[in-house]
Amino acid sequence: MFYYYFIIALQIFCFYHIYKNRSPYYWVFLILFVPLIGAIIYLFRYVFNSADTKKVQKDITNVINPTKKTKDLERQLQFSDTYANRIELADAYYENKNFVSAISNYKKSLEDTVQDDLYAQQKLILSYFQLHNYKNVVKHSENILNKPEFKGSKQQFCYGMALKELGKVDEAEHQLKQIDRPYSNYTQRLELAKLYLETHRINEGKSLLEEISEESKNMTKPNRRIYSATIAEVERLLKSL
Q: Which of 11, 29, 64 is the last residue of a domain?
């Protein structure tokens, strides 16, 4: 029985590692059809070369019991209420998609005025965006607008999309255009193209969609797999124009 659960745990960890690190997809089939041998080969090929055994064990535990990490960090924070411990707990909540608890802890960390609040503000923007709380996305974005880390970041994209949702189309376009960079940010640029189309600027929208479509032809196979949904949406919109 232990052997069975050990194999299952090993497979789950490998699948998680493949997804997280975008390893070649054929490993999924190898690990499925040759469970123990396939998993061991994968571990030595991709894991043990870059992480020690202790970390691998910890990652497996987190995959099997994702709440264990947060419970351990909650106890750690009770024992020692420091900025670092609270941020670590907030990050664990964020990883588990418990955005409400993540927000509570990121906001609490802002009370420590000795620390630079940039990281907490960045994570608050991402957390509020996941909850579709666009007013708070805007609020926290405006706290770091002048930081060099903001330009071209995920936070700037969330800010632009939040402005769009709040009906501030011109301001949204201003932010999204700053993320329009060739051969990158495909998903973000698709949203900018949609904004053009929604505001009846068909030529601008079509032009940007054609750029993304053309660039996609030169993508590596891993990137085509990562952005497959985005490329499909681009092609669908082009056909509809």
A: 64
- Do residues 94 and 43 make contact, with C-beta atoms less than 8 angstroms apart? no
Q: Which of 27-36, 164-173, 203-212, 231-240 has the lowest mean pLDDT?
A: 27-36
Instruction: Tell me if 31 is assigned to some domain.
Output: yes
Instruction: Tell me which residue of 180, 210, 183 sits closest to 192, measured CA to CA.
Output: 180
CB atoms within 10 A of CB 49: 8
Question: How far, in whole angstroms, is CA 214 from its chain's centroid?
Answer: 25
Which residues are CB-neighbours of 183 under 8 A, at least 6 positions away? 215, 218
Whole-angstrom distance, CA of residue 177 vs CA of residue 127? 23
User: Residue 140's closest CA among 109, 115, 117?
Assistant: 117
Q: Is the pLDDT of residue 108 over 90?
A: yes
Question: How would you label 89-118 residue by residue, b for 16+ Cβ within 10 Å and e otherwise?
Answer: bbbbbbeeebbebbbbbbebbeeeeeeebe
Q: Which domain holds residue 199?
A: 180-241
168-189 tens-digit pLDDT: 999 999 999 999 999 999 999 9
pLDDT of 120-168, one tens digit each?
999 999 999 999 999 999 999 999 999 999 999 999 999 999 999 999 9
- Residue 222 is assigned to a structural domain of this protein: yes
Dihedral sign, CA of 181, 183, 188, 194? positive
